[in-house]
Amino acid sequence: MVEYFVIINxxxxxxxxxxxxxxxxxxxxxxxxxxxxxxxxxxESLPELADVLxxxxxxxxxxxxEETVNPYAGQYPYGQRPPxxxxxxxxxxxxxxxxxxxxESQPIPHTNWLPxxxxxxxxxxxxxxxxxIFGIIGITKANAANRFYNEGFRENGDMSNSSARTMxxxxxxxxxxxxxxxxxxxxxxxxxxxxxxxx
Length: 199
What we know:
The protein is α+β, with helices and mostly antiparallel strands. It contains four helices and four strands.
């Protein structure tokens, strides 16, 4: 047997069989819900309740009111679950406030500079102190970029990712220069030692 939930004077009643709806005070503009409905609807929009509403009209001479916004949209009766496979609207559905500010609904694919920034930092620590500083800044910026992209903020992510790329490249270049100077100096020392031994 189909049972209905109904809002009468702002108070939820039910579940009630169809035969009891009129005695409960059902009106054409009353919001009702039953299994199979995706949301609360006005009673007058359900053809299956036409006979109940006709009886109400005959006894009460009810005048149809102006269209109003459904305050119960997105809510299911307390303790009820929709049938399997029916999408359930969220309770007290609210618009996503971040959508106003350009937030995207999915993580944004991007180039992750964090691993390279770590390599640049280590490389700089071994061969160039200045390169290590740029590498640390690159790590900070790459972390910020990844967070922004994962939260859907493309513009902020692009700015942080651009800074991370720049800092990382500088760190790698300075580390590479330091490495070359170290290798060159070591080679020169070895050559000098060999020349001394030969002489």
